[in-house]
Fold this sequence. Notes:
Number of strands of chain C: 0
Order of helices and strands of chain B: EEEHEEHEHHHHEHEHEEHHHEE
Shape of chain B: elongated
Structural class of chain B: alpha/beta
Distance between the termini of chain C: 12 Å
Shape of chain C: globular
Oligomer: heterotrimer
Strand order of the largest sheet of chain B: 6-7-8-3-9-10-12-11
Strand content of chain C: under 5%
CATH class of the largest domain in chain B: Alpha Beta
Largest sheet of chain B: 8 strands, mixed
Largest interface: A-C, 46 and 52 residues
Radius of gyration of chain B: 21 Å
Number of domains of chain B: 2
CATH architecture of the largest domain in chain B: 3-Layer(aba) Sandwich
Distance between the termini of chain B: 62 Å
Amino acid sequence: MTAITESSGPVIVPPLAKSPGYWAGVWRRFKTDKVAVGAGLVVLAIILMAIFADYVAPADPTRSSMLRRLRPIGTPGYPLGADELGRDMLSRLIHGARLSLFMGVVPVFIAFFIGSVIGVAAGFFGGKFNTITMRTVDVFYAFPSVLLAIALSGALGAGITNSLLSLTIVFIPPIARIAESVTTQVRGMDYVEAARASGANALTIIRVHVLGNVLGPIFVYATSLISVSMILASGLSFLGLGTKPPTPEWGLMLNTLRTAIYVQPWVAALPGAAIFITSISFNLLSDGLRSAMDVKG
Amino acid sequence: MALETHPDRGGPGTPLLQAKTLTKHFPLGGGAVVRAVDGVDFAVMKGETLGVVGESGCGKSTTARVVMQLLPQDKGEMLFDGEIVGGQALTLKEYRRQAQMVFQDSYASLNPRLTIEDSIAFGPTVHGVSKANAILKARDLLQRVGLDPARFAARYPHELSGGQRQRVNIARALALGPRLVILDEAVSALDKSVEAQVLNLLADLREEFGLTYIFISHDLNVVRFISDRVMVMYLGEVVEIGPVEELYGDPRHPYTRALLSAMPSMDPDNRTMEAPLAGDPPNPINPPEGCRFHPRCPHAQTVCAKVKPILATVGDGTRQAACHMQVPGSGHSHAPALEVAA
Amino acid sequence: MLKYLAKRILYVLPVAFGVSLFCFLLVHIAPGDPLTSVLPPDASQAMQDELRKIYGFDRPLPVQFGLWLMKALQGDLGTSIATGRPVAAEVWRAVGNTLLIAGLATVIGFLFGCLFGFVAGYFRGSFLDKFASMLAVLGVSVPHYWLGMVLVIVFSVQLGWLPPGGAGPGGSAAWIWNWEHVSYMILPAITMSVIPMGIIARTVRALVADILNQEFVPALRAKGLMDFGVFKHVVKNAAPTALAVMGLQLGYLLGGSILIETVFSWPGTGFLLGNAIFQRDLPLLQGTILVLAMFFVGLNVLVDILQGLLDPRVRRR
């Protein structure tokens, strides 16, 4: 057959001024969305706060004091009050952001990878493989997400690893489903046909032509799950299925402060407010991304 | 450049592509089957342009996709320059370097996330050309299809007009140095003036690269302009095939006549008096018995509903038609008389 | 229609089978020997062996699953370890309570969701739209168990208007339909209604905006048809989808009520699950989850079938 020859010596490709690409457009649209930018800044602040908790927090989050139990908001030295063991609420909230953010982001992140692989493969190869995969996904879809998370966590037992595992399993099916439906759409496009017609194998086509067009929508969908994951993770802790005391975590703090609603109701409500603010910021950020990326749905 | 040109193996006498009883059926639920392509035979000679015409739903595009092997055929085989496509001597990947396709929808056939030059360079890189060489080749091709690479190479598809995008698609198809290019309604979505420019470009490129075209279109004027021979399809079957001027001037199949009569002509003397198409529109799910055209045919007789006409040589031998009226002794009253053996 | 019905039911059977398999395996993914969960801590070896036989844990897993499924189909979900009572009885009692509260929550959520969604879609782009859309985002972002706590703080602790939790003055056994009892339902139902409210508002907003965008609506308005005519048209077209979403949301609430029931000590399935988890009562956990998931699956099919009845286009999918 005919051979492929390479001209010898290095080939110099004169660079051309690139058109602003897709992502430049996304950024331009995102910048004009005040709500999304605001939410993004809040998310960024919370992330920085969590990373530098040791420097930001005014006190040790685990240092308790039997004398200063359940102080109200505004107590000198305790700007947001003290909890049922006399620990500084502000410091605990700052340190609690670590685990709460972790539990919000990491399961979604892992599920994003696994779910994308499953969904893209099912969507691209279609046929029996698709049927079997998607039917299995349907089984998990038959559980409301809260119920599935609790069932798995309840069976596996308490602990961060188990919560992480259950939440990851909870998010794989919805992500796989979205990935499958976007990939099926892209697979039918003529440019994928053209790529096949040029003799490229499935993996090359997926890498060059499919991923670039499906990961965006899947990613946007996944970001909208972060707030769900945070709420679920805190909910698991709230039921005693997540982290163990005295580690500060917003859901667990809410749980242990439940009995304090008659003494210091607003201090007791603080951890939930922290979850709420973070969760809504992630949701608004996700909505902003969605419209900036022009993803339907 | 980077990819070597392909030698002519079979010589000028061997058709570049021969399709033998190509068949593609799509099963629907409940046992129904769409007979999109039903036993199609044709040959494309080297350097010629074979036009393919027919109403929508007649199987033109499915034929294109089977020829491009984007859909596997259910039955039949193809010979490319005398070798079986997908066989040992000509693997599918090798075949795909030599046969390329341009699609109708210029936007959908370009990856929106790739620059123009990346889209064109993709094919060669698949076949082992280095990225840098492929990009250089892409820019060269852009020049040849009439787009200034300095202006267009680094742009994205949505920044181009339909005509410009279709030029890019042509360049992409040429990037692998193919010998056969399938143009599936490639100019149909363009404005008339742009269409003419792209048609001229296609004609020039055919000369320049020594290409062979399969040109699929529902537009009979365009097909007449670019084709050497024309194949008429009806409900998944070939009803007539022959040199363009003879076929347009003296259609032998009633369906061809009906198609041509429906065609807007510039010359009033050229208009035929054939009745326009009547009857039910074609349905490839349950094609009629016998000749598939008989329910709409003004000359249909008993034999047409019973016996399926074969694609038989008519006239001077360069043409074929599948109609009982062309075959002596077929049982149709308009059939030519049987020559009595001496 | 019959064909559609058969297709839906055929489709749901493997899902239901998968769901039961998942529930069966729950006990087996639990760390350690599943037997330890049903054993008293001081059990002798002989007793262990005997119990292993009784529970069938000595058989191969597929056989165990078959036996378990047969029993479950006959309504036998095993015995609770904590109480020693049949799981099925416990679950059915709790399901009633959960349905009560989830049903009420769905109705509240549906009414307010439709109201907000309609206003937002009808006055698209206005201040009202932004306000309603914001409410919808709040609804999906709020940790509902926390919202429950806040409501308790405001209406029970601070204002003293409503009871903070429980199933009524005499417990769930002595339920009577009077204000004293109903007052116990109000806070949990309102808390729970926030979840479907946001989603229904979003759906209705999109539907209304879509219908109003169709060409004939401005024509209707131009013809001088009263706005009420337009309103009727919108309701007629949006209702099937909105109702379908509502049905699905009821299903979500059945499973999603667990945290809210825990906050309010409402004796439903969620509360039961909470206890099962707290006491590591795996048969109870398994049974409750199976029943809730089956309810959800059944509700999904029901919604599909009703949608098929209302809208023939759905059937062709």
